[in-house]
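*** Query protein ***
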Amino acid sequence: MTYNVSVLASPVHELLLSFSLYKRQTLMKYLDLGSKWPGDVEESLSPELKEAIASKENLFFEDLLVLFIEQFPYKHEIDSFFEWLGEMSAGELFERIASSLDDQRAIPTNLLAQRDRSLKLLKEWDKEYFQFHREGVLEQLTADAESKRKMLEEEAREKVILHASRFIVESETVQNVCLIPSLHIQPMAFLDHLKDTLYITYSVKNPNNERNELLRFTKALGDEKRLKILEFLSHGSHTFTDIVSEIGMAKGNIHHHLSILRGAGLVNIHIRDERNTFYYSANKGIADEFSRMVDQFL
């Protein structure tokens, strides 16, 4: 397998991600932000923006914005990005994304209308939420991105990807992997697969908050069902269906336990050529990390 690895750090992407988290409100209980975060944010939003976000049917165009952020020459400037994207014609919008999409994501005919609506929402989101959380964001994202670029110069790309996200790329069709640091999704990592490129959004760890990491680890191990899942995954990589069949629990319960194990860094996710099918395995190297955290804490 041969693929290129790049690192993309941008407050524009962090703004987009925070908007997506608020709109979708999924997996929130597994994030450090917590289940109450959407409600807390909502209290600061105007009725007009809340209604506009609620009435948006999907985030199709927003999910493609990573392609534009990647191409934007001034990745650190949010207002300049809005202006740059807003000046594009329908033809230019099409040209910038067409080569990155396969048959699974058809390009809509109303690109301009989707762009205009998305820009309006994101500008208001920045005004009413994100601008109050910009302080230190750029510095943290760029610092972590630089550390990953340095790691890529010194270590194998597979190790860097695994360290950042617990993803293992085993697909023969993937040609590019883009690592994107984020603050909002701690402690998880998210994946978007566009044609031959993987966009992996990973959480930036707070070196001053290792107590939380230790708590996540001990909480994840403090359940018999999760221990059974880990034991099963320690013998090889298995699909979600395999785990459900082996453990004998409802899919929702298995998803819950896997999410907790993922947040604690106890599970690896293998990306193979079967699109939308992931394989899970136990992170056997976590014992050394746990020992280090305990030694440092005590």
In short: The first strand starts at residue 4 and ends at 7. The mean pLDDT is 93.
